[in-house]
Amino acid sequence: MADDDHSELPTVLVLRRCPFIALLEPKCSQKFNLLKAWDSPLPQDQFLTTHARSVQALLSSGNGPPITAQILQFLPSLKLVVTNSTGLDHVDLAECRRRGIAVANAAKVFAEDVADTAVGLFIDVMRKVSASNRYVRGGLWACRGDYPLGSKIGGKKVGIVGLGSIGLEVAMRLEAFGCSVSYNSRSKKPSLSYQFYSNVCELAADSDALIICCGLTEETHHMINKEVLSALGREGVIVNVGRGAIIDEKEMVECLVGGEIGGAGLDVFENEPNVPKELFSLDNVVLSPHQAIVTHEAFVDLGELVTGNLEAFFSNKPLLSPAVIN
Amino acid sequence: MDSIGVLLPIPMSPYLEQELEKRFNLLKLWTAPHKTQFIKDHATSIRAIVGNASAGADAELIDSLPKLEIVASYSVGIDKVDLKYCKEKGVRVTNTPDVLTEDVADIAIGLSLAVMRRLCESDRYVRSGLWKKGDYKLTTKFTGKTVGIIGMGRIGKAVAKRAEAFSCPIAYFSRSGKPDLKYKYYPTVVELASNCDVLVVVCPLTEETRHIINREVMNALGPKGVLINIGRGPHVDEPELVSALLEGRLGGAGLDVYQNEPEVPEELFGLENVVLLPHVGSGTVETRNAMADLVIGNLEAHFLNKPLLTPVV
């Protein structure tokens, strides 16, 4: 059966199939025995009880399922969770800490790709790239004339919410466009010259655009609320490459529909893949299907990092990208 | 100055028109039922033309306006103005450099990201409800790709500066190498195209640079290469571009300009690796106002016998 050592390869549990796992499998299955919960006719709990009691490592996807205390109960030998995401909001970190389970995440491996998406969405909203591309493809340029003017990026004040590895990459890029960068983060970063705001509402009030690059935690849940959006203002633009739930989505949709903020570029939503349909008719909104990390190059790099973390674990070496869980 | 006739061939900007009307006798050519007659009727009072990327001043128009002293273009590219003839006839020419440099460079990067990361296509994917059925596919990373730039003037340098922030190595082709630039120079466009991932066209349109992007260059850029045109439509052999894209010999294209605007080859409409913009390079409220101010400033300087602000001829 699956967890008898019919091969000498160490076993890694995977709960649900996803594109990333599928891409990783050829390389991974040469080094590890992938124990696939979804492949079994048994319901998950039963499968885990029957086959996963001696499993030491779990490969998790940021898309789910969440690694809850309940699931961890069925994995008494588990010592490592490796996730393909930077975000850890889908892992019960407190329970992992309690059980002495190490967690490795994707760290900075696709910070550049996420930053590229954030900047791409920002330029798109400000300069109406997707909207005017639609206009041309609809044959409207010839009969209706020039498309309405966009908004200049140079000289704008951009507030970055969360100045971790992704936020820093965004900041570096926007500086080259002549934007002035400020930020809000859990703590000030004294080595950086960007202006720090301890209060996200004050940051919004002083910014022409907000770019959300932070992780989702209890503190950041719905942090971008009506107050912050009002402070951002009628001309203000918001870009989200963090997690949907960092923004109060219902409020944001109302603000966009009511013209209370200027526009939005969104890669993440509260209830993916569902996107509020009110947004579909708005030309000042650009929608992206949570694909900030989905490039060939990112997947190759991520594959190497995930495999590297698993190899390190099974050979008692330090993890390549341990997440700090406190 | 309000008796000075200024000819405006096509509508360009309400703000520009308003400012011109305050100062001059603005003659709006597009409102005339018979354009040739209109020109004849006003020939003795027209001392200036305001042109732009689509409407300039050719020899025929210059000859029909014996009192013409200056052509002030609401654009930086002045390929529609017969510069040689203006020089011969002593007609001054001005354009709008610098004020639009950043906006045009921003669009070059915006187009590169939109094509490589399929931003417009995946926006369409979400809006059509397809995301509920499955994830969008893998796209291509932009950071770290080699960006080749044709034309290292103000805008070319601004594109390079932005691309460098994405860790893109920069290479370029120019009429002559610029030794003070730290980027890699290639003596031919084909060599540049063979050695870059994204090729940006941003040089002036002249007889020499017409069709600078031809079949050979597109083949050299290749099935993974992306062409970004923020120069002028005629820089690119457009029918060749269409077939290169349809046949997969070229990886993708981001276009802001076309052979015969506002016509855009419809064969491109169905391609997911193409982004099509309606000549919006300088199209922001702030920049168009700054361009208008520069046009007004040049005209005022001329008619007050002061040095022109941004003369070309």
UniProtKB/TrEMBL annotation, chain A:
Its EC number is 1.1.1.79. Transmembrane segments: none annotated. Residues 120-292 form the D-isomer specific 2-hydroxyacid dehydrogenase NAD-binding domain. It comes from the Eukaryota. InterPro entries: D-isomer_2-hydroxyacid_DH, D-isomer_2_OHA_DH_cat_dom, D-isomer_DH_NAD-bd, NAD(P)-bd_dom_sf. SUPFAM superfamilies: Formate/glycerate dehydrogenase catalytic domain-like, NAD(P)-binding Rossmann-fold domains. It is an enzyme of class 1 (oxidoreductase). It comes from Rosa chinensis. Coiled coil: none annotated. Keywords: NAD, NADP, Oxidoreductase. Pfam families: 2-Hacid_dh (PF00389), 2-Hacid_dh_C (PF02826). This is glyoxylate reductase (NADP(+)).
UniProtKB/TrEMBL annotation, chain B:
Its EC number is 1.1.1.79. Gene3D superfamilies: NAD(P)-binding Rossmann-like Domain. Signal peptide: none annotated. It holds the Pfam family 2-Hacid_dh. One of its GO terms (biological process) is photorespiration. The keyword NAD applies. It is an enzyme of class 1 (oxidoreductase). Residues 110-281 form the D-isomer specific 2-hydroxyacid dehydrogenase NAD-binding domain. Keywords: NAD, NADP, Oxidoreductase. GO terms for molecular function: glyoxylate reductase (NADPH) activity; hydroxypyruvate reductase [NAD(P)H] activity; NAD binding. GO terms for cellular component: cytosol. Residues 13-312 form the D-isomer specific 2-hydroxyacid dehydrogenase catalytic domain. Belongs to the D-isomer specific 2-hydroxyacid dehydrogenase family. PANTHER family: 2-HYDROXYACID DEHYDROGENASE YGL185C-RELATED (PTHR10996:SF178), 2-HYDROXYACID DEHYDROGENASE-RELATED (PTHR10996). This is glyoxylate reductase (NADP(+)).
